[in-house]
């Protein structure tokens, strides 16, 4: 079966997912492709409501159950897949999604057995997995500076200690290793332009874009 035109962007906080998403949208748009950009948790009205519960430090505090979080995120994901991702793909669009099931495995997955997580992921995604996942990777210490410079209020996850972010990084890298055919690791410390160019190269490599596509992106 050919790969879905469904691209997910993964990685820790402030690693550059949203920046790469905007760059890819721009580049694919320039190539005349129809693109739907979305994010998780979120993307549909119901899922966005659940997102605000999950990311709100005031309402939740720091003691919520990771299993409960995984279930809420999975409910949001199922709604997102059924009502936005699958219809958009069926209509011939590319779908680029800022975070997807790998984030749940990296952030909440350790609270469940591998078997339970896989079963939950299968229901949540309706077995709709990305054709390519771009994992942005860098040491969390290097990313802290970028986050601070952004000046945004830190959310419930961003406030966690450096050891937490390092663990998340290692879990993402483990996913990339075990699913090397789907997940490619990009060095998040490269420039935004370089990262778009690399992403386009990988889209060609897996056959999602024709090799001869003339892209403006520089490497
Ligand atoms: N490749 C890059 N080089 C330098 N700075 C970057 C790069 N990519 C993003 N940035 C900057 O780093 C900050 C975080 O980027 P961005 O918001 O894209 O990350 P994110 O992964 O989407 O973060 P979050 O997890 O909070 O959604 C922004 O200030 C952005 O301008
Ligand atoms: Mg973002």
Please provide a written account of the structure:
- Strands 2-3-1-4-5 form a 5-stranded parallel β-sheet, sandwiched between helices.
- Helices cover 53% and strands 12% of the residues.
- The protein has helices at residues 17-30, 45-55, 57-60, 66-90, 101-107, 114-125, 140-150, 162-178, 192-205; strands spanning 6-10, 35-39, 94-98, 132-137, 183-187.
- The chain is globular and about 50 Å long.
- The longest helix has 25 residues, at 66-90.
- The chain is α/β, with parallel strands linked by helices and 219 residues long.
- The chain has a single domain (6-205), classed as P-loop containing nucleotide triphosphate hydrolases (Rossmann fold, 3-Layer(aba) Sandwich).
- It binds adenosine-5'-triphosphate (ATP) and magnesium ion.
- The site of adenosine-5'-triphosphate (ATP) has 13 residues, from α1, α7 and α9.
Quick recap:
This protein is of the alpha/beta class. Helix content is 53%, strand content 12%.
Topology of this protein?
Blueprint: E1 6-10, H1 17-30, E2 35-39, H2 45-55, H3 57-60, H4 66-90, E3 94-98, H5 101-107, H6 114-125, E4 132-137, H7 140-150, H8 162-178, E5 183-187, H9 192-205
Parallel strand pairs: 1-3, 1-4, 2-3, 4-5
The structure holds adenosine-5'-triphosphate and magnesium ion.
Adenosine-5'-triphosphate is lined by residues 13-19, 146, 150, 190-192, 195.
